[in-house]
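Proteins fold reproducibly. Look at a concrete instance:
___
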Amino acid sequence: MVRAPCHPNPLRIRFVGFELDEANARLSSNGEAVALAPTPFTLLCVLARQPGLLLSKDALLDAVWGHRFVSESVLKTAISDLRTALGDTPRQPRFIETVSRRGYRFIATPSPTPLTPMSPSRAPEADAQPTPFVGRVASLSRLQRAWDQAQGGQRAVLWLAGEPGIGKTTLIEHFIAGLDGVTCARGHCVEHFGTGEPYLPVLEAIAGLCRVDPALPTLLRAVAPTWLFQLPWLSSAQERDALRHELAGVGPERMLREMGELLERYTEQRPLLLVTEDLHWSDRATIQLIDYIARRRGRIRLMWLASFRVAEVVALDHPLSSLRHELRLQRLCEEVVLDPFSETEIADYVAGRSLSLARDEAFVRALHDRTDGVPLFVSSLLSEVMEGSADDATVEARLANQAVPENLAAIIDHYIAKLAGEERDLLSAAAICRGDFRVETLALVLERDLASLAHACEALVRGRMWLTRSRSADSGDASALPYAFRHALLRQVLYDRTPLSLRVQLHRQVGVALERERSLGVPVAASELAMHFERARQPMTALRYYAEAAETALSHFSPASTLGLTQQALILLRQVPAGAERDALEITLATLQGVAAFQTLGVGHEAADAFGRAYSLLAGVPEHPMRGRLLHGFGYLLSLRGDYAQALAVAARAEALSSGSDDPLLMLAACVVYGEVFHLQGDTQAARGWIERALAIAGPLDIRASEIFAADAQVTLLGMLALELLRSGSLVQARSCLQRARARAQALRQPMTSLVAAWQEVLIEVRMDNTLRVAALADAMRALVDEHSLALGHAPCRWWRGWADARNGSPGDGYRRIRAAFEEHAGLGMRSGTSEVLGYAAEAMLLAGDCDTAKAELEEALRVADELGERVYLPQLFLLDAAIARAQGCPYASGVAVRRSVGEARAQGAPWLELLALVELCAQCDATDKERQALATLVEQLPEAEGTEPMKRARLLLQVAVPA
């Protein structure tokens, strides 16, 4: 290709805030350089040299391209790029006017500026940068528009897509460099060979921002404690322990909400550019966060710029693949796809190194053929052929003599072949590491002197081919990872070219080295160690680290990551011979899988199967350290599923193991499950006995929320005891227990504990018919659930609000709320307590005057109660049956139903419920003397019920029954 010759009189003019300096190849606006590729720059010079004069298309093609092998479309593209750089538009031009079908003219009025003579040492070619930035004008313009949009308060999510080596990072760097005083947070995803660490690139970005902005940690404490918990160096051990208790039981949704709030608060003071690179290696949690931020409403001065490789996203069915399409369809994001350099752009790039070579069409075309236009390899190959010689003819000959590689990997193979032995050993070991790496790690692996190895790494950095210094090296952190490959593709090809036997050995050596560094306090992720030992063919060691990584992900509110890690580990477990050690590992992995599945998928078969597998192996490893978590979790899950018989069997197992080992936590888990199940089965005396025993254990231990109990044990048990005391008619004691539970929950300020306290209280208020209090508690629970993303409370707070609405004059709306919440709850596999909720629905329909629907709901409730053996709400259901019969004009059927309620309450040992039923029976005027005497006896036996509405009604009925 022929380049336009340099003009003998270089142009230097000013026009409307711009300055054009042809000699120095510079266009500036108000003193700031404007990014403009060489070809559009030359076109601008040609136009500006003849202001006001129409230049035909042919004339411009001759002047700029020499009219060889170039169509008019290329001219249109260059004009478009030029207008973008100038901020001009074809409809209302200020600088370049289009004359339809003829050509273009420069319409601004230029004014000359004095030229500064250049010394020979400052000639343009000698002053050129070794790695000039060329092309990408349209892409830069789109990035700038997105940033302008973000500065104006409208969030901008922009994908930067392209293949390896296409220049994504270079474009990002150039874009950031052009922003004056921008606040930028950057993070990278790393290849993880499985499930990645949750939110890794975002945590890296936030951590980097905290280092330069001391106000951010304070804001994290205020609005994003779940994120503060992920950055332990920002808080003390005492603060982290308090956070651990506060955050127990919260779901991953809270992390999303908190990050949204954090970004909105932070960007009130300044716009923020958040960059996450290599998103094709991202974990699912990060993708979910991008989705949430993109869809979140409200003003926010944020631009989220993320880069990824299109081919890998599509081929691996990465969740990003569907998300990018969904967000684009909804106009919530923009995507910029980078293409390889054209011959023209390669010529512009070469011009930064040698103007004479840039004018040589054969050389440029050969360079394009050898690199496929991939900028990374254009730069590398050009540097290689020019190395050691300033003679352009020699450089051309060197390029002509090189073999033409068939693809990008072949180019890298060519470079690998030129490595010295020690260099290749160093880089092969570095390629085994994931992402950035420490020289100290390589020194341990290669058994080489640290100083000499650091010197070798610096030499490779200076060579500008293989290594670069990681940005984290400037963080001031002693454990920073200072080196990285210049491009991930370089590392991947070198890794693939390392013989398999050597790879296995190096993975083992790297794993051992990282273990040693970890013991000295260097942060090394367990998932990274698991990957190394899996590839080193040491499955037992790998499995231990997989278990640690899974538990870490769980504590970091990413149960989805825990599921991925445990699934991968359980596949690897097949390689391990049977035995006690394998069983112990499987118990750990399956228990963690069960907890994660419970949090993400509910109480369906995924969680039940995982817990069940671990439970079946426990007999062979009875002293397993995770047995308390397993037995409590499995027993609780079974009770939620309505599998009460199995739940009792698990509790009995925990009790037996506890008695043999004197483990109070294990015994406490047994007591809690026993108390819950016996309560649901309507055995008041047994439930109360187990609950009181559990309180005696929990009190001295002061067990708060922990890995075994999602909520504070004492608050949970006090609420459970209050329910049993109410059923027994000890209303004063019940209120006292509730008050203690509420006070402790308020003092602890732990969301899950607060939810449990409110849950237990609303159950009591429902049984006391306190409609206003139920409505207030339901609303408070809804606020708590929404604020802290407590998935377990989503449905209950809505059905209790529906119960209150039905009694407050809106039975139709109340019924719809109850049914919707019930369906959602049942859809998660939770059947516990459903007979009571269906009773709420029946009562709402009765209040609405729809006896047929009310009867249908009641019959479903009774069927569920019979199927599950769930008797706790049967006395109220029988009273409801009586009310429906009365409304239908069937007094006899009503009397039968009330007497069933009396008998059931008596059988359950629940005098309060028996009092309610006897009051209804006596009010129907067909009670026998024996039944009236039973009511009189209850009135005397329940002094703590004095003053309640049922007690007032009872005394009034008894007075009426006394003979005159």
Notes: Residues 580-601 form the longest helix (22 residues). Residues 65 and 170 are 27 Å apart (CA to CA). The radius of gyration is 37 Å. The longest strand covers residues 302-308.
